[in-house]
Amino acid sequence: MKLTNVKPADGKLGIMVVGCGAVATTFMTGVLMARKGLAKPVGSMTQYDKIRVGKGNDKKYLHYSDIVPLAKLNDIVFGTWDIYPQNAYQSAIYAEVLKEKDINPVREELEKIVPMKAAFDHNYAKRLDGDNVKDCKNRWEMMEGIRKDIRDFKAKNNCSRIVVIWAASTEIYVPEYEPIHGTLASLEKAMKDDDREHIAPSMCYAYAALSEEAPFIMGAPNTTVDIPAMWELAEKTKMPIAGKDFKTGQTLVKSGFAPIIGTRCLGLNGWFSTNILGNRDGLVLDEPANFRTKEVSKLSTLETILKSDDQPDLYGNVYHKVRINYYPPRNDNKEGWDNIDIFGWMGYPMQIKINFLCRDSILAAPLLLDLTLLSDLAARAGKFGIQRFLSFFLKSPMHDYTKGEEAVNNLFEQYTILKNAIREMGGYEADQEVD
Fold first, then answer.
1. Structure confidence at residue 3 as a pLDDT band (50, 70, 90)
2. Of 306, 328, 357, which residue is a domain's last?
3. What is the rounded CA–CA span in Å between residue 369 and residue 280?
């Protein structure tokens, strides 16, 4: 490893997950099984991917951990909040993502992961109704309760660092509202005034994490850290933030396939995407106000890859529709259909059909591992604010829209940005060479 300014990953890393449902327990179980040598962390870039460093005779391909000091799986300690009191073992069994035989070898460890009381507002997820909930007078008190949880967990588990990641449900859509979300001072006032319309519970988690010097990652499409007030807080606390929405199934396909159409200069008339899923996420998204949050996230991908302004002949009149349907028999085994109407030479039409029968939590679990380890790395490297290099893992990557910046959604461009960030933190030169 070259000399870098990144602090070493000494001591234990506490990964505190908001939500102890299917995604969280699949993630935790997989990590615990992998460190016993009983499962493989397939799908995790930090555990499998290799990056080329150097050129010519100096060229070599290295795992991330051979380039930068990443936390080891053995050093991870899990904590969680949830509105339901069941421990991580009970929750993993209930979720029915993993077979019992793949959970039981780490049963004792999972049973010790008991959710702390969640900061929750029923109006933000009307389909959920749990009783393991904090009793708070206002949003500020809610945030202070979470801060105390983080401090207590860190001390109790002797952690040297904490990362907080949201793997809970999608909240109702909270549009960015400049008078409240524009500055840190106005956000803090709204929290103290208990402005429940503009301050979502997730914002209390983000504020608490950053204030306790823990990076915060938003794994749902919630507005949470995608506002100038939170960017200001991240700058003040010198902490990384990332979001939003884990890029698992259909959007992963879209961010990888749309560049094929664009690179080949083919035209696009329409892209219809629909999903069926039956897990808790599907139940919450069955509520129109919650689906609106997800819809905004999923729709943003295509228009930043196939730009109508750049190629009006090809993408000037695209019809893009996204649907999610709650269908309990499928549980976590989501199915995504994409119908893509393209046109080619002289405007002649063609069609592409993609049918992805995926497992939502199986695709999401490695993203949680990569996002937490890389956010912890970023913090030790002194990187703070929006972590654009993590866009690869996210459906609707954060960007400074107040300055006209566009998100990068092209999967291959995102991958180049990711590799170069790792290279630079490892003391190597960034480059654009494709390999």
1. low
2. 357
3. 21
